[in-house]
Amino acid sequence: MKSAMLIHPLFDLSGKVAVVTGAASGIGQSTAQQLAAHGARVVVSAPDAAAGEAVAAEIKADWAEGSGDAMAIACDTGDRDQCHSLIDRTISVWGRIDILVCNGADRSDEDAADGMAPDAAWDRTMTAQVRGNLWLTGRACPDMASRKDGAVILIGSADGLRGVPGSSARGMAAAATAQLARDLAVEWGPHNIRANCVAPSLIQPDGAETPAGDPSSVQTMQWTYPMQRLGKAEDVSGAVVALAGPAGAWMSGQTIVIDGGMMAGSGREEG
């Protein structure tokens, strides 16, 4: 069990209820853990019920004497009924939703040689990420509006801001995710609901292109980043915590790129 930490008021999420999808690993898991560490009660959601339960149990064990708490609710973000059930069950059990983190990206990336994804992969990616985000926010935002307070954070990708060979479906889904954050910010802003998109670049260990057994290839990729390293899940979850709490109270409709400076310019070349 971890000892309770002193939380700065700008990052204090005590009393808040957060829902995090895709929370069984990587960015989603780190986000769920950090939200709980900052005082929130967290719904750990993932398609795999057992994996979600394991993360929730770990959070509960870590913060047994703190303010954080967790429960698991299985949800495939590509299924509208499951998305609606996730929101409805959360409200039924904990009475509210204050923070919604949508991390339901599908990483099939089965792109054809011409750069366009086959129909099945395209539909799977667009449904899990774009439609899933619409289903979740459409159900959760009215509850937030009833209290005139809420934060929606959509996890996108830096691939939505640049061309990447072989990633057409993922890139277009990421671009749509950033646009949805802007739309939600305008639509729900009068109800004091803010919506933002966090767009990371390659993150270990979730980056599908990371050659786990090839240190030289990892080093080559690191050289392309001005900060000379690949991202970590914690690099993203820290930004989510800031956006979810008082620190992000007047930030809305933005896409926050977390990429070690890559969009600003490439790092040094190998050699």
Structure in words:
The protein has 271 residues and is of the alpha/beta class. The protein has a single domain (12-258), classed as NAD(P)-binding Rossmann-like Domain (Rossmann fold), CATH 3.40.50. It contains 7 helices and 9 strands; from the N terminus they run E-H-E-H-E-H-E-H-E-H-E-E-H-E-H-E. It has helices at residues 26-37, 49-62, 80-94, 119-145, 168-188, 215-223, 233-244, and strands at 17-20, 41-44, 69-72, 99-102, 150-155, 193-200, 203-204, 231-232, 255-258. It has a 7-stranded parallel beta sheet, with helices on both faces. Helix 1 (26-37) packs across helix 7 (233-244) and helix 4 (119-145) runs parallel beside helix 5.
Summarize the structure in short:
Helices cover 41% and strands 14% of the residues. By secondary structure, it is α/β, with parallel strands linked by helices. The chain has a seven-stranded parallel sheet with strand order 3-2-1-4-5-6-9, with helices on both faces. It has a two-stranded parallel sheet with strand order 7-8.
Spatial order of the strands in the main sheet? 3-2-1-4-5-6-9
CATH homology group: NAD(P)-binding Rossmann-like Domain
How many beta strands in the DSSP annotation? 9
Backbone CA Rg: 18 Å
Q: How many helices does DSSP assign?
A: 7
Describe the largest sheet.
7 strands, parallel
- CATH fold topology: Rossmann fold
CATH class: Alpha Beta
Please identify, by name, the CATH architecture: 3-Layer(aba) Sandwich
Mean pLDDT across every amino acid position: 86
What percentage of the residues does DSSP assign to strands (E)?
Answer: 5-15%
Distance between the termini: 46 Å
Shape type: globular
What structural class is derived from the secondary structure elements? alpha/beta
Total domain modules? 1
Poorly predicted spans = 109-114, 206-211
Helix content: 40-55%
User: How are helices and strands ordered from N to C?
Assistant: EHEHEHEHEHEEHEHE
